[in-house]
Amino acid sequence: MKEAGEDIMALDPGLLEILACPDDKGPLRYFRDEDLLYNPRLGRTYPIQDGIPVLLISEAQALDDDERQRLDAKSGEETGPKTSEG
Amino acid sequence: MSSSDDLPQGEEKAAIVEQMFDQIAPRYDLVNRLMTFRMDVGWRRHTVRSLGLPTGSTVLDLACGTGDFCNDLLRYKHEPIGMDFSAGMLGAANTDAPLVRADALCLPVADNQVDGVTCGFALRNFTNLPDFFEEIARVLRPGGRIGLLDVSEPSNSLLRAGHNIYFGKVVPKIGALLSDSGAYRYLPKSVEYLPSTEELLAGLTRVGFADGSRTELSGGITQLFLGTLEP
Question: How many domains does chain A have?
Fold first, then answer.
């Protein structure tokens, strides 16, 4: 039996080092378990589809306050990889 | 693909180009190899060597398509990252390089991050070349290198006549037979989008590639722009 999230391919560490939000060019938080990249400054997420981050402003999802708080709290808990500080 | 002979501009161009590349993605590699007699492979490898970057360099390949340039960068022991606007192209990609769906005019990359930028046969598909040049200068480290390939027309009149017949008449037929006829009518015609050499080099100088140069390859049917970002 596979555990939840086992099928999700981790993004390349070298890629995560250089990636930034296409809008404000600042760093993104990577949530591997949810397959998304989060910009805490603009409160939006970018999807990762079949292991390929979709970093198009038109494809970003704007988050409501509850969702922002949830991801901000999760960011605080996690020590996982973060993209470049620019 | 519009049946009109007029070349689209701006957002209409972006939408048409994205849709067209999604559509031709499955047989893109095969058609390219056939219509250039495999010369495209040599042009890309020449570009990678001309970058002169040390092995292990991080190189961003923009409009990476199915990953040809990424594979040549891997062959020369670099660390490529491929980016393309077209989900279809990325879905059909055959490379071990990490890939990102992105807009080359609005890159999802922090400043001063990469050692090199390559781009194969896509300059004419961008809706705004000055914005593209600014973006590549922004993401490159000082001293970083660019190698931008695109089609060209030979300066020799006899070669140019033969070239025009081949790309105007033969390539669209190969495309129609194996892929999408509209796309392969657009591709040869899209060379008209490219500004003059002087304008292109001036655009590169403006954003910091003072040593920008243009080299003709294979009798001038392809051109290579090289440059180093000033420290």
Answer: 1
Domain encompassing residue A66: 13-77
Residue A26's CATH number: 2.20.25.10
Which of B57, B59, B95, B101 should be substituted to probe chain A, the one whose Cβ sees the most A Cβ atoms within 10 Å?
Answer: B101
**What ipTM goes with this model?**
0.86
Please give the pLDDT value at position A78: 59
Q: Measured between alpha carbons, how far is residue B16 from residues B12, B23, B63, B84, B177 in Å?
A: 6, 10, 15, 15, 21
- Write out the H or E segment, with its range, that includes residue A38: strand A36-39
Is A50 contained in some domain?
yes
Asked whether residue A64 is domain-assigned, the answer is yes
- Cβ neighbours of A11 in B, within 8 Å: 98
B134 touches chain A (CB under 8 A): no
The reply to whether residue A20 touches residue B109, judged by beta carbons under 8 angstroms, is yes
Asked if residue A67 is part of any domain, the answer here is yes
Tokens 């890939």 belong to residue: B99
Residue numbers of chain B with a pLDDT score lower than 70: 1-6, 27, 33-34, 37, 184, 188
Give the distance from residue A33's alpha carbon to the nearest chain B alpha carbon, in angstroms.
Answer: 19
Interface with B, mutate which of A16, A23, A56 (most B CBs under 10 A): A56
In a domain, A29, yes or no: yes
Contact A25 B79 (CB under 8 A): no
Backbone angles phi, psi at A19, to 5 degrees: -70, 145
Q: What is the Cα–Cα distance from B109 to B144, expressed in whole angstroms?
A: 15
- Identify the CATH class of B10-207: alpha beta
Of B168, B163, B170, B148, residue with least CA distance to B219: B163
Could you say which residues from 155 to 194 on chain B have a Cβ atom under 8 Å away from some Cβ of chain A? none
